[in-house]
Design goal:
- This protein is α+β, with helices and mostly antiparallel strands.
- Helices cover 44% and strands 15% of the residues.
- 1% of the residues are buried.
């Protein structure tokens, strides 16, 4: 695990524990070293080569929440546009903007990812 201070060598169990402790959405970069199988009969390089990989990841991203929030924003924009077309003043709309967004988010159809049950 590479932190702002230095890279650390940790086990898979330690990595899992650290990732489960993350709160909120965070970008991380993982550096891993694995030993390729290369175990064909008579392979002279078997056990001598390692594969280094770098992976950029997003940890703690809640796709379901993102979709629900986007749907709420879309609906609130539609409601505000309809009110403007109906002749309601912008000052009155500004006063109730937060309430409209909350109502739109609450009443929007909820998205459920297939992995959640």
């Amino acid at each position: 695990v590479k932190t702002k201070d230095a890279a650390m060598v940790i086990s898979q169990a330690d990595l899992r524990t650290r990732l489960l402790r993350v709160r909120g959405t965070t970008f991380i970069q993982l550096f891993s070293t694995t030993e390729p199988k290369m175990n064909k009969t008579g392979n002279p390089l078997h056990g001598l080569i390692v594969k280094d990989s770098t992976t950029n990841c997003i940890v703690g991203f809640d796709y379901t929440n993102m979709v629900d929030n986007a749907r709420g924003r879309e609906l609130s924009v539609e409601v505000i546009e309809a009110c403007k077309e109906a002749g309601i003043s912008i000052d009155i709309l500004a006063q109730f903007s937060a309430e409209v967004k909350t109502m739109a988010k609450d009443s929007a159809e909820k998205f459920t990812a297939s992995s959640r049950k």
